[in-house]
Specification:
This protein is an alpha+beta fold and about 230 residues long. It has 8 helices and 7 strands; from the N terminus they run H-E-E-E-E-H-E-H-H-H-H-E-E-H-H. Strands 4-3-2-1-5-7-6 form a 7-stranded antiparallel beta sheet, with helices on both faces. Strand 6 and strand 7 form a beta hairpin. The chain starts with a helix and ends in a 14-residue tail after the last helix.
Length: about 230
């Protein structure tokens, strides 16, 4: 019944490797069927060159395995917490991509310095608060999801489809597993550009609100005009 979901999630995971965003088994992509709340996710610790569709694990929104012989990703509770709170998303991605992870380890948000960033993310990429000893020792992965959700109070997760977990690494999401991977590709590019920017000019400030609005909404707003319009229906 969920062969297509498994296939999409498997292919999205393999795309991370093709994009150079993961090494060994360090990363995972999941997808959810919102009609049944069944989540497909990469199995824990499986190397990317060994990953096949039949190894993708199916769980419910509470982490109970529905189908699959392998253990789901250890990050599954984080994914599930995001699915429970961000209703518009249907795919989640986590990696330790070098530049985005460096920002996360530095506990610094990624500023929006220019229009390249503004074309995809509406404002800076937020970083979570540092997790407490209690949060780490008790239900760590679930609490990782909770600190992400807390950080997005007042932020639209569909306009800023990425977060940096302090001392840890990036998570991204989208309307599909493939879109979540695209968000990760874009996030790593913005992390690299931001690092280059402050290397050249440590005093560089963020983009103006006017220019941020112009570039984001010309692609993503209700009156977006970037790209080709769909043919008018007769």
């Amino acid at each position: 019944m969920y062969e297509y979901l498994r296939e999409v999630v498997c292919n999205a995971n393999l795309q991370l490797r093709k994009q150079g965003l993961v090494i060994r088994s360090w990363g995972n992509v999941s997808g959810i069927d919102r009609s049944t709340n069944v989540v497909a996710i990469k199995p824990s610790g499986v190397m990317y060159d060994e990953l096949t569709c039949d190894k993708i694990v199916l769980v419910d929104l509470y982490g109970n395995t529905i189908e699959g012989a392998l253990k789901p990703s250890s990050d599954t509770p984080t994914h599930l917490e995001l699915y429970r709170n961000f209703e518009g998303i249907a795919g989640i991605c986590h990696t330790h991509a070098a530049h985005a992870t460096a920002w996360a380890q530095s506990c610094k948000e990624i500023p929006c310095f220019g229009t390249t960033h503004a074309d995809y993310f509406y404002g800076p990429i937020p970083v979570t608060e540092v997790m407490t000893k209690e949060q780490i020792q008790n239900y760590y992965e679930l609490n990782t999801g909770k600190v992400i959700v807390k950080r997005f109070v007042g932020i639209d997760p569909m306009k800023t489809r990425a977060v940096l977990v302090a001392n840890h690494g990036p998570f991204t999401w989208g309307k599909t597993p493939t879109a979540a991977v695209e968000s990760m590709v874009m996030l790593e590019q913005m992390a690299t550009l931001a690092l280059d920017t402050i290397t050249i000019n440590p005093n560089q400030g963020p983009i103006s609100q006017d220019l941020l609005d112009k570039h984001y909404f010309r692609k993503h707003g209700k009156d977006a005009y970037y790209g080709q319009r769909s043919p008018a229906k007769e």
